[in-house]
Design a protein that fits this description.
Blueprint lengths: L17 H14 L4 E4 L2 E5 L4 E5 L5 E6 L4 E12 L2 E7 L7 E6 L7 H22 L4 E6 L12 E8 L2 E8 L5 H5 L1 H15 L5 E10 L4 H7 L8 E8 L4 E5 L9 E3 L5 H7 L1 H9 L3 H4 L2 E7 L2 E6 L2 E10 L6 E7 L6 E2 L5 H14 L9 H4 L2 H11 L14 E8 L2 E10 L5 E6 L7 H17 L10 H4 L14 E7 L5 H8 L6 E7 L9 E6 L3
Parallel strand pairs: 10-11, 11-12, 22-23, 23-24
Antiparallel strand pairs: 1-2, 1-7, 3-4, 4-5, 5-6, 6-7, 8-9, 9-10, 12-13, 14-20, 15-16, 16-17, 17-18, 18-19, 20-21, 21-22, 24-25
Amino acid sequence: MPPRATSAEPVQAPSQTTEQIAAALEQFLAEHTRAVVLEDGKVLFDMRETKYRLATEHGRCTLHLWGEERNLVRRVGSTTMRNGVLRLSTHRFGQTKPQTLELVADRDRRTPSTREATRVKYLRVLERVLLRTFPEFKPDAFRTAMDLEKSFGPAYARGSLVQGQKAWAVIAVNEEETQSTVDGILTLGILWLQHCRESGDGRRLYQGLKLIVPRGMAMLTLSRMAWLNPNVAQWELWELDQKTEELEQRDAADHGNLTTRLMHAPNERAAEERFAESRARVMALLPDMMRETVEQRIRSGTEMAFLLHGLEFARVRMGYAGNSFNSAQEITFGAGANETPLTHEHAAELREMVARLFARRIAGGDKRDPLYRMQPERWLESVLRRDVEPLDAHLDAAHVYTQVPAFAAADRGMLDLLGVTDDGRLAVIELKADEDLHLALQGLDYWVRVRWHHLQNPDNVTGLGEFQRHGYFGGLRLSSGAPRLYLVAPALRIHPATDVVLRYLSPRVEWILVALDERWRAKVRAVWRKRSGA
């Protein structure tokens, strides 16, 4: 009788087929577009800036990752999902000893106990600083406990400063949290202020909100605060240096110069002529019945993309031939960040990939399928790009721009949709296919950027603003008024926080919240609308 395995012995995972390994990778990368790849705890690749290829040839699954800094090729022997981390058992070519790669959805790799200890320690620092800075007020009921019902996460310390009947709502975040967590503080702060005002016994009058962020991380919050309504609350932003425990106030009216630049709209006619041969080569690989559904988009004078329901599956780029300075066009294919050069050997693979994509990424498809679920906002964007009038009959369907690039410092901002109404007002259209409590303020970010560009140095002779000088809205005369902001999402995916945040925006921001029928993939239909000032 063989000996019984002890608890100390490793449990052997059941073997996986090549197809199962590839499917696990494909599904994880489809669901976590911001994932990072780790080896020995070190970040090797950020999937937002990385291309990859999965090959399942000769009974092996091969993963190829490449970016600006490095290139990696590994054979994947198995995958294991645990605590939101996909662990890959891999082999370098020519080596038998396995190595482990980890695909992590969250870049913050601290253990829960470490995060909790950091936040508890920060609470003590915060209360000391508040007592010293605001001696006339008493800190009250500060905590970091999670409250999912009200959308409060443990990353934010929140409480009140109380002086008799007067009070301030306070929310703060420590320097160990990610930049995206810090940037989310204003949404949570508005919700916290509203909660304090609604849950009190009426004896406290909450004057406003004090936000406290780490030193040097306040820029985005500062630009957003300039567009809050000063008539419904007072707003204060403070920066804390945790080492010195110095607290310094930032002036919400002084949000500095908006360092952003607008990219010129590409000359589509010239680009189409330039890419004509490569375009024909890609389209020839598609079955006739599929060609009408493919969107061909000129991204720039040097790049053309082919998309199905917003998901890019092939592209043509200008490059250089060999080691010379002679220009050449390169065709690559692959869904999302998955990318493979098109050669005669890969033509059959492209046909197979496209056939699989067209069979699975269809309205009414399997909602569990990674290709169906991948990039839903880009799918919604592609539907509205063809017909924007369901959002508002006053939108001009002939002038809708997709993914307009505007750069702010190191941030590459891509506006979902930019349009114009029949009275010449620019329309900033922010889309969400899934629930997101930051919808209102993320839309505000793009509205601020578009407004700034629109008002920059209008030509006194022609009246043209910066957008038209950069090749957008040709033949139209745009109004000098501020843009309108459209916030668009399926009705059941609009987070309750959106309505609360919109109530606190400045009346200078004209917004329209549009709720869509959940079956928008088949047909876009607005089921209700809400407007500012209504």
